[in-house]
Amino acid sequence: MKKALALALVALPVSLFAADPPAHIDISKLPSQAKMIDEVVVPLPSEVFGVLDRLGARPAWSTVQRPINGVVQPTGDSPQIALMLGAVIAEGFIAVEAEDAVQVKQIGKSVLNLATPLGVGAEVKKRAQAITDSADKKDWVDVRKELDGALDDVKTAMAKLNSEALSQLVSLGGWIRGTEALTAVVGKSYTKDGAELLHQPVLLDYFEKRLAALKPKYKVNPLITRVQKGVLEIRPLIGLTEDVDISEKSVQEINRITSDLIKSINSKAP
Questions:
Q1: Nearest partner of 246 among 187, 202, 205, judged by Cα
Q2: Residue by residue, what is the 3-state secondary structure of the chain?
Q3: What is the CA radius of gyration of the chain?
Q4: What's the pTM value of the predicted model, to 2 decimals?
Q5: In this predicted structure, what is the pLDDT of residue 29?
Q6: Contact, 269 vs 221, CB < 8 A?
Q7: Which of 90, 104, 95 is nearest to 11 (CA)?
């Protein structure tokens, strides 16, 4: 299978960046420490953010945050909570970029609060406390590592509980929130190079297949239906071939779709 790059804010640890900015993004060389998910190459979130900085975007990450007031409460059934957990962990990476210690601490507590009803609270309890402690010290490198560790702990624990489907929904929730943030940043200062970071067809194919393979009890969930529809709508917008630029209009449309999905994920409505 051909390998492709993708932004998945909830999947990966921190990395360091080269000091000199590239003349052009060569995304085939971007993930120096990337992980593989079923042959899909996922670059480190900090690598993606670093490229945006070197392109001159200098994002004001605080403007794309979704501030959390208090601790996020579990809403709905297990699929919705899994999506919420992924989105909250992704929000943690964004809060780190904004160097917002208050939000990071709220996110640490929220991760534990959402992991508990999924049956994996004990596995992330120490991580959640470590996120809070590192935020108090404003040790952003450690916060990133602990966020990444929390996701790994959740996935490992879910595998032991035979809950791989929910684990995949955690990843998908994080990707949706991360993509919403990235499109907001790229849309504010559009460049073809910045938009190229959204070119991730193989990851979209991966998510489509995983959603299609969900058990019937999950597939009839109205939220899962909306998420599946949104992924299908995004697929043609992110560039079906290597030689097609992702337009500013497409960036805006992806942002609209992902924003609507995040609202649905966080909604108390059935």
A1: 187
A2: CCCCECCCCCCCCCCCCCCCCCCCCCHHHCCCCCEEECCEEECCHHHHHHHHHHCCCCCCHHHHCCCCCCCCCCCCCHHHHHHHHHHHHHHHHHHHHCCCHHHHHHHHHHHHHHHHHHCCHHHHHHHHHHHHHHHHHCCHHHHHHHHHHHHHHHHHHHHHCCCHHHHHHHHHHHHHHHHHHHHHHHHHCCCHHHHHCCCCHHHHHHHHHHHHCCCHHHHCCHHHHHHHHHHHHHHHHHCCCCCCCCCHHHHHHHHHHHHHHHHHHCCCCC
A3: 17
A4: 0.83
A5: 44
A6: no
A7: 90
Distance CA 178, CA 233 (A): 17
Decide if pLDDT at 181 tops 70: yes
49 has a pLDDT exceeding 70: no
pLDDT top residue among 47 and 207:
207
For residues 198 and 182, the answer to whether their CB atoms sit within 8 Å is: yes
Q: Tokens representing 118?
A: 């999924």
Which contacts qualify for 101-105: CB closer than 8 Å, 24 or more apart? 101/135, 101/136, 101/138, 103/65, 103/67, 103/68, 104/131, 104/132, 104/134, 104/135, 104/143, 105/131, 105/132, 105/135, 105/136
27 pLDDT band (50/70/90 cuts)? very low
pLDDT tens digit string along 210-266?
Answer: 899 888 988 899 999 999 999 999 999 987 666 778 999 999 999 999 999 999 999
Of 4, 76, 14, nearest to 45 by C-alpha is 14
